[in-house]
Amino acid sequence: MAKIIKETIHAKGIEIGIYTTDFENEFISLTDIARYRSADPRITIHTWLRGRDIVEFLGLWESLHNPDFKRSEFDTFKSEAGTNAFTFSIKEWNDTLKGKGIITKSGRYGGGIYSGSHRLTGKR
């Protein structure tokens, strides 16, 4: 297993965690960003992820940067996005659609929800 390199960037006085294992595919902490808006960042993130525009953006990102992404299954997922009954599960996104751009990490320090900030395929 590759060594995980953790770094921190600072924006408007907020420490935002970034980690990588290969210096090419970096992931930025959405949890740290959401702390700026709310005492409970999980609610902020899950509310944000329910929106149709965000789901469409994530699908586009995956389509461009992830050759394993299941686009046909994504169409069903996307059609439900934004409705009152729609819930977004990162586990479902990754398991069903083979998504790689948004992940969860467990742990007291450095745990949270992360989003890919660079390409995953080695191609531009």
UniProtKB/TrEMBL annotation:
Residue ranges of every copy of the KilA/APSES-type HTH DNA-binding domain listed in the record: 16-123
Matches recorded under SMART domains: KilA-N
Domain of life: Bacteria
Name used for this protein in its record: KilA-N domain-containing protein
Source species of the chain: Treponema berlinense
The organism's taxonomic lineage, starting at the top: Bacteria, Pseudomonadati, Spirochaetota, Spirochaetia, Spirochaetales
